[in-house]
Amino acid sequence: MTPSAAGPAPPGGFLEFQNISKRFGTIQAVEGVSLEIRKGEIFSLLGPSGCGKTTMLRLAAGFEQPDAGRIILDGRDITDLPPNKRRINTIFQSYALFPHMTVRDNIAYGLRVAKKPKSEIEAEVEKMLHLVRMTDQAGKKPDQLSGGQKQRVAIARALINKPSVLLLDEPLAALDLKLRQRMLIELDLIHDEVGLTFLYVTHDQGEAMSLSDRIAVMEKGRIEQVGTPAEIYEAPRTSFVAAFIGDTNFLEGEVVDIQDGEYSRLRIEGLPEIVCFNDKTIRPGNSVFLSIRPEKVHISRDRPEESRLRNILPAKVEDVIYLGSMTKYWVRTGDHRIQALRQHARIFLDEKPIRWKDEVWIWWHGDDGFMLERYRERDESLIAAPPQNLEESPEDEDKG
Amino acid sequence: MRTEIRSKLREVLMTSPSFLWLAALFALPTAFVFAIALRPANPFGGVGRGWTLDNLERLADPLYLDVVWRTLWISGLTTLICLSLAVPIGYVLARVSRKWRGICLMLIVIPFWTNFLIRVFAWKALLHPEGPVKRVLVGLGLAGPQTPLLYNPAAVILVSVYTFLPFTILPIYAAADKFDFQLLEAARDLGARPWRAFRTVFLPGIRRGLLTALLFVLIPSLGSYIIPDLVGGPNGEMLGNKIAQRVFVDRNLPEAGALSVVLILAVLAPLVVALFLERKKEKPEAILR
């Protein structure tokens, strides 16, 4: 995945957004966004619909003009260039294949427009057809192709112009799950083969995680965090990133003291004191927000061994959701609802399974609770929790 | 087997009313026109006995050839002007906001509230040597005091374009409305300048609308009668006028029939070509399906 063949990347970005703002009517689509995308990497813009990610892509393609800010490609200011003058090509969400042209003519379009000699066009088109494995479909019209085939034609049509950057606007959104997984691998292979810079827009965190070298998480026209998939997942800076990427538990607390300089003890309402890794300059008395990933929370019937950095809490199971490879448990401890994920493994078969209303123990390591830099209450709504207070409804009492 | 026969029978029964209607009111009269064209005229304004080719031979008269040629080029030019105005208008209509689209469509349709004949008369007043258009043009130095605006082919074309333009805008707008404008962005993205993208992606995309518009203006303008009669003068006469003269002035029905045959063939020709083009486009898909 690393573009080692392209030589050392120049300092700074290959494609740079500098302080970009764009407004549509009363909607501020993008607000003061700066990004540096390195040469040869797959960079994803990830966010919910309406977060401004597609606007960023359209700005890069030249379909929209920013109200403020500059766009730099390979050291050249391209902000005022029309789309046809930019060495950037786009793969549209709906593919936008020309319906009146065959697959071959669609792919050849860019070179024909550039008035390349006929023999060169033919050779290049054959090469592209081969790359996307569409040689035997070359004479068909787009409406005779399946979704995955259209997708491949769109890729070939964009790549034939040898762009510096390839923009992908939710290219897999229209495909079903299995095809999406296959196309994802194919995109990765194509990226390795052509060594281009990819700017990939998606709302699907799974796609972004598995494909990207780096991800920028966007929300309401701003960048929340930029980093590698692991950084984004393991060290989310804001409650939005923590809740949008994967799943999480939020806990609000206050720092009691700092131990060994690295760990803090937190007071959280309704819970015993919690140990937490503290790499930030947070002092006793400060309030903090913790994010704990569900798969980091262990659950069992037996009380685990005590350890200095282990937070162990008694809890009661409120909901059990079977997910195939895993089971998700919603448990209540004190006033808090916590979700815990448990991978299914053979070893557990001998054990009595954990059921609804069971009294259990949950625990997590102090390193796995992550302090957020910014917390907003509305991000709680991103966590899909089952309805509360199941125990109080009369039907449930009957079942018990 | 029996169900097959029954379904066939039902098909025949279902289509027979419209088939009879077309046969009685369209095919039969057309056949009469063709038949009358092959009959001699009688001095009382009726149709004589026997069969003759005289009427068709008389069409070789240079006078008629002139009129046929004029009919063709006036209609052709009218069609060309209408289409080249309607395409950009249809494009803009499909792209403007819903509110403006409603207003513009309204403006296009409103003239139909006035009778066609009255609107042509209005043009006669406008283009009159003492009329407002003439005065403005002379005032601007764009026309000399002696330049005639009325009673020439140009006046026929102007009024024809005015009359048929809505009929070309509407089908083109309908096609443009269904057009996926992201295709234009895709073309621009691949390096095409605006005009090239328009020509290679938008125009093929609205092909059906263009074809409909073409037939909507070409066919009625080939058969045009009132417009050249009112604003054409002797130099702007078209086939329709000649047919009317043969019927009302000369009372020579067979010769009028012969002229009508020419007109019908002239109208059929573009239709057949259009149908053929559509078939050719459709065929490869039809085979694969």
Helicity of chain B, in percent? over 70%
Computed structural class of chain B:
mainly alpha
- CATH-defined topology of chain B: MetI-like fold
- Strand-pairing-aware structural class of chain A: alpha+beta
CATH topology of the largest domain in chain A: Rossmann fold
Distance between the termini of chain A: 54 Å
From the 3D coordinates, which CATH architecture of the largest domain in chain A would you assign?
3-Layer(aba) Sandwich
Number of helices of chain B: 13
Which term fits the overall shape of chain A? elongated
Strand order in the sheet with the most strands of chain A:
6-7-8-3-9-10
How many runs of DSSP E, i.e. beta strands of chain A?
A: 20
Q: Mind summarizing the main beta sheet of chain A?
A: 6 strands, mixed
Mean pLDDT of chain B: 87
CATH class group of chain B: Mainly Alpha
Distance between the termini of chain B: 26 Å
Describe the structure.
The complex is a heterodimer of chains A (400) and B (289). Chain A has 400 residues and is an alpha+beta fold. Chain A folds into two domains: 4-234, P-loop containing nucleotide triphosphate hydrolases (Rossmann fold); 239-399, RNA polymerase II/Efflux pump adaptor protein, barrel-sandwich hybrid domain (OB fold (Dihydrolipoamide Acetyltransferase, E2P)). Chain A is 22% helix and 32% strand. Chain A has nine helices and 20 strands. Chain A is elongated and about 75 Å long. In chain A, 38% of the residues are buried. Chain B has one domain: MetI-like fold, CATH 1.10.3720.10. Chain B is flat and about 70 Å long. Chain B has helices at 2-37, 54-58, 62-95, 98-109, 116-127, 132-139, 153-178, 182-189, 194-205, 207-222, 226-232, 239-249, 253-288. With 289 residues, chain B is mostly helical. Chains A and B meet through strand 6 and helix 2 of A and helix 8 and helix 9 of B.
